[in-house]
Design goal:
Beta-lactamase, 2 domains, eight-stranded antiparallel beta sheet, Beta-lactam-related
């Protein structure tokens, strides 16, 4: 599938007054919370405003502009999911057939999961595969094949389909499945199936493609400083390696708002699959963090009763936010590269949603006014999965969560344990703050049918191991 015309990826009718106002507001928020950011707003099919502020690369003195490419991180997962659903349309994949039918070499420590996991499980983060297993399998076009071979030593953190736990590994497996059924390597498949049909000129998957444009570098730490590396290993591609601009991310969002049609009328995805991707598939145990449910790729929420779907992304010092309010034909994309990006996102999206859709985001979390009674013994212990250990200890009648990272994540983010006191919120639900963020984040304790205790935090289910 190729693009043969110069149809714009998304129509633009910039509103000068709105653009100036958002530019001033973004600059104000970037000065308070971040290093650099770029924003675009699309309403009724047209981009009405673009703005950028701060640094693309503070160390090199390169300013962010609306043409700067940022890493969109895990928003990439919805792009990979879109291509997967297009292959379902074509009969090359089935949502509920074992992926072992097309990828018989898949092995996990739990052989039953490897044999029974389906495309639906991968798309909804319910496979149980330990999702934060990262491995650099090189720059070759066989990187996904090599990654899948290494999963034979990777554990399963929950029974198949029993809960939702964010799974990067599952989307790398999905990328390999797409390669197998099409015979096309994942990066090239994204170009053929999405970038070209949507007329995208600044969107890519490889660092050498980003270097053709003004590219943002991530910034980490407090105060934020340039990150030591630009991006993740190539094997993370289907889960999070696409780079783009807010305008071109909105062209992707418009594909879904327009029922699977590109701007030039090319059908990329069926209306049926567009709708299926936005249907709730599984509840999110921590419904306060991102969303209440997950669809097929998208996460799903409501703001003031209005339907919202979207995705976030986080790489090495870069954070991305995409929200679509389909009933109001509104889509907003913010790409950032350091600082308290969550506070920046909340302030902007709440104001924009109120102006264009008359709705407000869910209010920020706050601990209970009076501490709730609880028995610390119900929660104390060690909870662990790949790359992360959570130790819950009692201190002065309260609870403290100590987060210890390992593996590649620790190398990038720092391996020193971080203590995070927990405050009561609701029975079984506590709130805490990360050192780099001002907002309260939820920590949900829950139990599966088999009796295993879990913490759901950061969209991930971490089982109690001791």
């Amino acid at each position: 599938m190729t693009q043969t015309t110069e149809t714009p990826a998304v129509q633009s009718t910039l509103d000068p007054a709105l653009t100036a106002r958002l530019q001033a507001r973004l600059a104000e928020l970037v000065a308070a919370h971040g290093v650099g950011a770029s924003l675009a707003v699309m309403h009724r099919g047209e981009v009405l405003a673009e703005a950028a502020a701060g640094w693309a690369h503070q160390g090199a003195g390169i300013e962010a502009t609306t043409d700067t490419v940022f890493q969109i991180g895990s928003i990439s997962k919805v792009w990979t999911a879109t291509v997967a659903m297009a292959l379902v349309d074509e009969g090359l994949l089935e949502l509920d057939a074992p992926v072992a039918d097309v990828l018989p070499e898949l092995r996990l420590l739990d052989g039953a999961v490897a044999a029974e996991v389906t495309l639906r499980h991968l798309l909804t983060h319910s496979s149980g595969i330990d999702g934060d297993f990262f491995s650099d399998t090189g720059r070759g076009e066989d990187n996904l094949e090599k990654y899948v071979a290494q999963l034979a030593e990777v554990a399963v953190t929950h029974p198949l389909g029993a809960t939702m736990s964010y799974c990067n590994a599952g989307f790398t497996v999905l990328g390999r499945i797409l390669e197998r059924v099409t015979g096309v390597q994942w990066d090239e498949l994204m170009r053929q199936r999405l970038f070209q049909p949507l007329g995208l000129k600044q969107t890519g998957t490889l660092p050498e493609e980003a270097l053709l444009h003004r590219a943002a570098l991530g910034h980490i730490g407090t105060p934020p400083a340039p990150a030591p590396v630009w991006g993740l290993m190539r094997s993370a591609g289907p889960a999070g390696l696409i780079h783009s601009t807010p305008r071109e991310v909105l062209a992707f969002a418009k594909l879904h708002l327009d029922g699977g049609l590109a701007a030039d009328g090319t059908r990329v995805l069926s209306q049926k699959s567009v709708e299926a991707m936005q249907e709730p598939q599984i509840e999110v145990p921590d419904s306060w963090f991102l969303a209440t449910h997950w669809g097929l790729g998208w996460f799903l929420d409501q703001w003031d009763g209005a339907k919202v779907y979207g995705h976030d992304g986080g790489t090495i010092g870069q954070s991305a936010f995409l929200r679509v309010l389909p009933e109001h034909d509104l889509a907003i994309c913010l790409l950032t590269n350091g600082g308290d990006t969550f506070a920046l996102y909340r302030a902007l999206f709440d104001e924009i949603a109120a102006e264009f859709a008359g709705v407000r985001m869910r209010p920020e979390l706050e601990p209970s006014a009076e501490p709730l009674a609880f028995d610390p013994a119900d929660y104390v212990g060690t909870y662990e999965r790949a790359s992360t250990r959570l130790d819950i200890t009692e201190r002065d009648g309260g609870l403290v969560m100590t987060v210890t990272l390992s593996g590649i994540i620790a190398t990038v983010a720092g391996g020193d344990p971080i203590e995070m006191p927990l405050r009561t919120f609701q029975p079984g639900v506590f709130l805490t703050k990360r050192p780099e963020l001002d907002a309260w984040l939820s920590v949900v304790f829950y139990e599966l049918a088999d009796g295993t205790r879990y913490i759901h935090h950061g969209a991930r289910a971490t089982p109690k191991v001791g």
